[in-house]
Amino acid sequence: MSDPTRVLRLVRSTKAVQHLTTFVVAGVSTILLTRLYLALTGYPQIGGDTGLHVAHVLPGGLLMLVAMGLQFSYVGPGPRPLAALLGGVGFGLFIDEVGKFVTSDNDYFFAPSAAIMYVVFTGFVVGAHFWRRRVPLSDAERVANAAHVLVDGLAGRLSARRRAEVLHSLDGLARPGDVQGAAQVRGLLEDVQTRPPSLPHRVEELWHRVGEFFTRLSSSRYALPVMGVLLLAQTAWALVVLVGLVLSRAPHGVAVVGVLVGTGASVVFTATGLWQARRRGRRAAVESFQRSVLTSLLLTQVFLFAVSQFAATAGLVVDLALLGLVNADLARMRRADR
């Protein structure tokens, strides 16, 4: 199957996964904070007793419009971190009211709404990671991304860390002499003056620090057994919730089967990883752990959300932390293999 970005002649961004992650984290946080605020304030209506009700899907749409306006109005990568943040908040406000759009009585409290939101966000993140891993960036795309960053440098808005990051990316070109403009872009990047990071770039700096934190954790000698223990604890938590559900005799037969299948598969992948740690090495073990985390994200937590939003939210936080740790460890090992 051909890559659609090649068919459409699109150049992929080296920061795509980072910006998409910002978007998702902002969206999920907005949903949780919105629901908490509404619960604490007794679900007030904007508009009072005037007969009007300004649903929060409207400010959500406005924020998404602002995010698109930033992208349309400015050149270079500068506005992207802020656009990802504002767009994520706007999308969170929008999809939080999905229950009103899929029910005939506009039911905001429609029970499956949480599962719908969960599937959208997790599919977004996991799809982005698989998309990037399936087709790595070409040398030409890396040079094009460096030229894009150069726009900020020529305008006097490039931070020293970002320049160093881009130059390191150019160092990894397989055949730099064969890529048109590679030497010229490098020369200009080395010549431009750097500045302290601007407000939009501080969002990007935050994710850089988060990535460094996970990388440090993954390099610890205890990282592998801790991953295994956390994965097993995660499945045990899901089973505890499941037992409580069965004892309550609530009518959630499909959800029970889904959680059972998901936790069973996660246990198999985790046990396989622990076994492979001695037989085939760390990389094989971590790859198996990654399958366990993704199974929990895409299967177990989806069905858990349908019956216990609190339990699934706790599981989601743990799964995202584990996914960050596992991906950081795999990325570290790939860099070591180069």
TrEMBL record:
Keywords: Membrane, Transmembrane, Transmembrane helix
Membrane spanning residue stretches: 20-40, 52-70, 82-102, 108-131, 222-247, 253-277, 289-307
Superkingdom assignment: Bacteria
Keyword Membrane: yes
Protein name per UniProt: FUSC family protein
